[in-house]
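Re-run with default settings, no changes from the original entry. Doing this only to confirm the output is reproducible before filing.
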Amino acid sequence: MRTKCIAIGNRIMGDDSIGIKVLEKLAAELEKEEIQVIFGETDIDYALSKIDNRDFLFIIDSTYFNIAPGTLTFTPIEKAMIGQHQPIYSQHQPSLINLLKTYKKSVKGYIIGIEIEKIHFSLELSETLRKKFLSICEEIHKFIYQTIRGI
């Protein structure tokens, strides 16, 4: 089993890049913990190629659940894979979770969702996410650290 952290998102779509930017900030610390860092961005096939059976994953991506921007959600991958019977509306189609299920990858871990404010053509995060960026990074790092200690 190897622990891997994968960032999904689009660098030119404003808040959709939040997962990538967070992983860039945390990469050095995660690598010290022997966590493999993968920037899947919008190349879901590339991300899938880096995942092996029995891996423990942290997938960081933007979400739009109509909750406060900057809110973090932590969803067990197993739960997300069970709930894939309803349509998924994502900029990253097909979703990495759908492909994990399709290819019968036996993995565990979490989807770390970061609620966005808006997605538009921009290299910058929204003002809301910029203001919360460091606290988002700290909370995600803390979650990952505590989770790997409990594996």
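The domain at 3-150 is CATH 3.40.50.1450 (Rossmann fold). The longest helix spans residues 127-150.
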